[in-house]
């Protein structure tokens, strides 16, 4: 029987930045990420969910070593575009489940979320692709999360 | 020279749903997606960005054929957990750039966003993985978006 999930990964060398209430109009995402690219900052996750009242938040993750410079650049762009503010934390970890068997399997994401909930771990950010589901959580919960996911998906 | 982006994909058979201002505590993501999984609904993108004032929005996409049932289920969960409401649209398309060369290349996402901005296309949702950057846009802009991205990334 095909294994649904083939592995669990954990990235502790990550920081999150969010630029809050940016105008929801063409060109804004470009402005933010071209500024970061110009400084050669590698952006990992980029997450933008549904807008509200003509504004949106855009959150992203970078390595901890790039975090301070990324924050400085983001604050600059935030001022320029009239965003409400910027949030920042280095105290996070990105935990992911990976697998070719996940596509078109409705229960896999729910099972990952259930596992984290059972450990009392709050999910800060979520992003998915066909072969990977990633959750950003407190860095202090990372080890517990990885252990529980290994167990739930029979990977121990 | 390695090609950064190897392809552009477009999924027009997609609808977006967002559950607004859900309590930001463990177990909520599980509740929503287990309800959808129980109904055998395949969820494509799941997007959760930064929280605000102890609530968060969770948006996701499904096929158009699953959309009405997914909406019904989501409204049920929304009431149960005290979310503010649910948003819904079938008038969307998911446009993605794909490539192994994108990892650790800061400019690629910015270039995709620039291309959409140049066409006057507003980016509704964004999600990324190491090999894929996806933007949700108006369905009516999809063809224009794909053409422009092919051109920008020399794929025509
Ligand atoms: C919010 C941001 O993504 C904006 N909608 C844009 O297209 O750039
Ligand atoms: C908002 C939702 O993701 C919540 N934080 C949870 O862990 O389920």
Key structural traits:
156 residues; alpha+beta; 6 strands; binds threonine; six-stranded antiparallel beta sheet; elongated; homodimer
Describe what this molecule looks like in 3D.
2 copies of one chain form a homodimer. With 156 residues, chain A is α+β, with helices and mostly antiparallel strands. In chain A, 33% of the residues lie in helices and 34% in strands. The first copy, chain A, has helices at 28-38, 64-81, 107-118, 142-152; strands spanning 7-23, 46-47, 55-62, 85-98, 125-129, 132-138. The first copy, chain A, has a 6-stranded antiparallel β-sheet with strand order 2-3-1-4-6-5. In chain A, helix 1 packs across helix 2 and helix 3 packs across helix 4. Chain A is elongated. The two termini of chain A are 17 Å apart. The mean pLDDT of chain A is 96. The complex binds threonine (2 copies).
